Amino acid sequence: MRSVVLAHEVDWGGWRDAARTLALSNVPPDEVVWSVRAPSDLFAEQAEDMPMPKPSGVFTVSRALVSLAETVIQAREPERFALLYRLIWRAHAGDKHLLEQVTDPEVNRANRFAQAVRRDTHKMRAFVRFREVVEQGVTRYVAWFEPSHFIVEANAAFFVRRFATMTWSILTPYRSAHWNGVETSFGPGASPADVPDDDKLAEYWRTYFSSIFNPARLKISAMTSEMPRKYWRNLPEAAAIPDLIRTAQARVDAMVNTPVISAPKPTNRFAQTVTELPSSGLARAAVEVAECRRCHLWEPATQTVFGEGPPDAQIMMIGEQPGDKEDLAGRPFVGPAGQLLDRAMAEAGIDRTQVYMTNAVKHFKFEPRGKRRIHAKPDTAEIMACKFWLEIERAELAPKITLMLGATAARAVLGRAVTISRERSKPIPLNGSTGFVTVHPSYLLRLPDEEAKAREYVAFVADLRAAAALLDTV
Length: 474
Ligand code: URA
What we know:
Elements: E1 2-6, H1 12-24, E2 32-36, H2 63-72, H3 80-92, H4 105-127, E3 131-135, E4 138-144, H5 152-162, E5 168-171, E6 175-179, E7 184-188, H6 201-212, H7 220-226, H8 229-232, H9 241-246, H10 248-256, H11 281-288, E8 315-319, H12 324-329, H13 336-347, E9 355-359, E10 366-369, E11 372-375, H14 380-397, E12 401-405, H15 407-414, H16 420-423, E13 427-430, E14 433-438, H17 441-446, H18 450-469
Parallel strand pairs: 1-2, 4-5, 8-9, 8-12, 12-14
Antiparallel strand pairs: 3-4, 5-6, 6-7, 10-11, 13-14
């Protein structure tokens, strides 16, 4: 047995060196015991029952695996070091497509840990609140935060970039991070008592939160899932929430009765993508949707796949849900159906970069079958749960043409079951804009005979062309 004692919970360098040495020396995973040195255990290194072997040879693993390992090591899961070493061991043994086997129990577990770390990171970035402390005439900012995972070290650089001109400390139960304006340092954990109560910034945060709070979008359950109660006691603005909720309806009424002054639209129509416009509602939704738990589909999926395209696109194309490739890439329509759609769009004279592409459901629903993930159709409850996001996309984008690809998209937009053969190829009035239904490109991929495929493809291109032509009439 080898025993590896890491210097601390996120001793990435220590773990990486040990994993490299062990793998090169052909030490199998079940012969290694991983642990973390207790802060008081000065003699832990001597606890190794066998010396580390001297390695020889070259060791390479994919960038994706390294990046996954860097995230997973932050998970508060004692088994993470061993799990990562098992993955490295398998990759080193020649399993080149390891991470693509997302239903493999070890890959799946690592992805789950990474997802939990990413979620925690998102919360930390959103909910850390600094309080001003003046000591001997010098102003410092101190924040208390309770992460679920070991994420402080990896996130320090983010707070340095964001608050570069302040001198600050972020205190957590397991570690503290400090920025003195020049360099970052880390120290032992702390307790909430180390953060002073006296808080001038509280008022600032309350005012800020009240100003970004949109009463028309009030959804208490979504709000508590986005801003879990666990964090409320450290959030000065939480004090404003009950009042904001109580007065929300009155504020909506007032908004409805206030004349609208439109913000100017960007002049470069297609150059900006949604993610380049962080202040837009779409960009906000693109960030928030990553944490969506409105139905259970998030759990086995790799990530949320939100829409993409210019925020003032005139055409919005809606598919069913991301497929296997989209789930891995995090972008809609990049797999086989997307490639067929690209070809058909080009033939119909539609430039994909000018279209906002999205799906009715934002997570991949599948049945694991061996190493493969087989597409499963989303049910009505899942479509309805995800409609929340589709409605935001539609409201923010206000496209002239909404092109629904297949029955799921049509059901989500029209709110009823749709028989494609009966309703395809003709304009459908949609609250001041125009809807248009056609088949889903994967329907063409599934057709068994070539003749039918060719015939249906021509009809599909004709539909796309007809939909785009509606731009001249609406
Ligand atoms: N099918 C869809 O409906 N959407 C995608 O993004 C990919 C395949």
